[in-house]
Amino acid sequence: MVMLATVRIGAIHSVVFAGFGAHALGDRIVASGSRLVFTADVTWRKGKEIDLKTIVDDALATPGHVVEQVIVLERGTRTALARVDGDGRVDLANSSADVIGSVARFLAEHGWRRGMPTHYAIEPPSEIIDRALLLVPDVVPSFSAAQMVERGARLDESAMQHEGPLALIELLNAEPPPHYVAGTQNFYALTRYNASSYYALAVIELGRAVGAIR
Predict the structure, then answer these.
(1) Is 119-213 a CATH 2.40.30.170 domain?
(2) Is this model's pTM higher than 0.70 or not?
């Protein structure tokens, strides 16, 4: 999402492999003359958690850089990892119980509500201004169903009965027109792991497919 945003505003940027060590990363930061660094706090490789923020901190110890600010996406893994299978350690590579428990804890810490749908069907406002206003908060649920209807959106009866705010989610397809859904708090919780709405919807559809064959 950061890369897409920088492309959209025309900013010069450099995408760096997350597997680089601090020295290699520092050399690239200096060579590129970067003033801003975006990173996640952690990532994973073969079930092992990699502390990206520490690597960035060490990289910025390299003399000669002109970085003014570091922006960190907190994915919350340090508190979300769970020891569930009773062996006293977190093993995301070999313990399905630890994986499921960690995912459940992560979602709970980001506001997941049991039994709440992730999204509803919606027909967005036909007026460009009204549609744009509903899209401003992005994936953050900010409008009641009634407020969306006031702006010209159309929701089915189940969505109108939803308790809590909704977000108008725009999904751009390979060919127009875009697809829209009304995202709930649970849709938003999924985007706290990966900020992409496409990712969240893929996870939802995968979950439904797995549930259908159980």
Answers:
(1) no
(2) no
